[in-house]
Amino acid sequence: MASKPSLLVTRRMPDAVTARASRDYDAELNPDDRIMPQDEWLAKAEGKDGLMICSSEKVTAEAVARLPGSVKIISTFSVGHEHIDIEAVKASGRTVTNTPDVLNEAVADIAMLCLLGAARRAHEGQTLVRQGEWNGWYSTMLLGKDLTGARLGILGMGGIGQAIARRARGFGLAVHYHNRTRLAPELEGDAIYHDSAEGLAAVADFLSVSCPSTDETRGMVDADFIAALPPGAVLVNTARGDIVDDDAVIEALQSGRLRAAGLDVFKGEPALDVRYRSLPNVFLLPHLGSATDNTRDAMGFCCLDNLDAFFAGKACPTAL
Ligand code: 8YV
Predict the structure, then answer these.
(1) How far apart are CA 252 and CA 256, in angstroms?
(2) Cα(first)–Cα(last) distance of the chain, in Å?
(3) What top-level class would CATH report for the domain 104-284?
(4) Buried b (16+ CB within 10 A) or exposed e, 279-300
(5) Potential cystine with 84: which of 13, 59, 158, 318 (Cβ 3.0-4.6 Å)?
(6) CATH code assigned to 6-102+293-311
(7) pLDDT tens track of the chain, all 320 residues?
(8) Given ligand 1 and candidates 35, 51, 52, 55, which is best to mutate, with the most ligand atoms within 8 Å of its CB?
(9) Same fold, 6-102+293-311 and 104-284
């Protein structure tokens, strides 16, 4: 029997994913889940046929130049691939894959949690109850922003944006979106297309950032963009922290120009701008978008499906 391809799995994976990787590959695992410095994972890549990485591993052009010749494929356990210089990997003759679609529903759930948490002041409510400071009902206690009849602007209408739109309709939100390309009518449904981000901002009582982090989108939600939103808008970000300008968002949250924000992702996470922590009108989560049992398994299986196909000489299902 031919020997199994060798694989470096840089982070601890869910049990079912680890079991399949260990069964089908000569896999070097990271059971302690210690994040390895670049020099360390590059050294461990020596002699490996493939790498299964996460967004913690920054595959820069310099890293690609130092990759051992044995490595022919990099499979990232993420839909986002801003941590990889895709052009450099491809130019080196290697294959690179990600995990689209399998996490759309889970991330959309967290987007709605962030939207509701921000609109209905979940952080302030939780704090009252947990700190024993809830002294009873009054008619104006922690009043929030209505969803029904409001407009949700979705910035980036890929699979995740579309999954958010499906949920939003159930909450009585009118769906507006901006995307590089307009959706086909059967996907668009009753959603209203805006051909510019500024056009979308003007109608977004709620704004969901749902686009990838790219050279075009980084810093897009800046002071000008926020100034274009209706006063008292609510910002939701489940995509990437660097798409928003933290100074502009924090200033707008302090002044009330933005009524609230629900944030699952942060520039430089797990570090985040500490000012967010003390703002009462922010609902904060630690990048939980895809964190469900089935979704994390599906992401791992998607990586392994790509690796299996590659080593069988077939086309990878989700090559970039
Ligand atoms: C992951 C994500 O948890 O898929 C993505 O792009 O942001 C998350 O689902 C994380 O990136 C793990 O690599």
Answers:
(1) 6
(2) 31
(3) alpha beta
(4) bebbbbbebbbbebeebbbbbb
(5) 59
(6) 3.40.50.720
(7) 579 999 999 999 999 999 999 999 999 999 999 999 999 999 999 999 999 999 999 999 999 999 999 999 999 999 999 999 999 999 999 999 999 999 999 999 999 999 999 999 999 999 999 999 999 999 999 999 999 999 999 999 999 999 999 999 999 999 999 999 999 999 999 999 999 999 999 999 999 999 999 999 999 999 999 999 999 999 999 999 999 999 999 999 999 999 999 999 999 999 999 999 999 999 999 999 999 999 999 999 999 999 999 999 999 999 99
(8) 55
(9) yes
Residue with tokens 């009043």: 143
Q: Is 85 left (phi over 0), alpha (psi -120 to 50) or beta?
A: beta
The reported pTM is 0.96
CA of 256 to the centre of ligand 1 (A): 31
Cα atoms in the 13 Å half-sphere on the side-chain side of 234 = 27
d(C-alpha 320, C-alpha 310), whole Å: 13
Pocket of ligand 1 (CB under 6 A): 54-55, 77-80, 103, 289-290
For residue 151, report the phi and psi dihedrals to the nearest 5 degrees.
-110, 130
Strands annotated E in 130-281:
151-155, 174-178, 192-193, 206-209, 233-237, 258-263
Enzyme catalytic residues: 240, 269, 287
| Secondary structure (DSSP) of 46-58 | TT-SEEEE-TTS-
Size of the chain, expressed as the number of residues it contains: 320
C-alpha distance from residue 301 to each of 13, 21, 56, 294 (Å): 10, 9, 19, 10
Amino acid at position 291, single letter: A
Number of C-beta neighbours around residue 56 at 10 A:
14
CA of 310 to the centre of ligand 1 (A): 22
Cβ neighbours of residue 186 closer than 8 Å, sequence gap 6 or more = none
Domain boundaries of the chain, sorted by first residue: 6-102+293-311, 104-284
**C-alpha torsion sign, points 304, 214, 286, 38:** positive
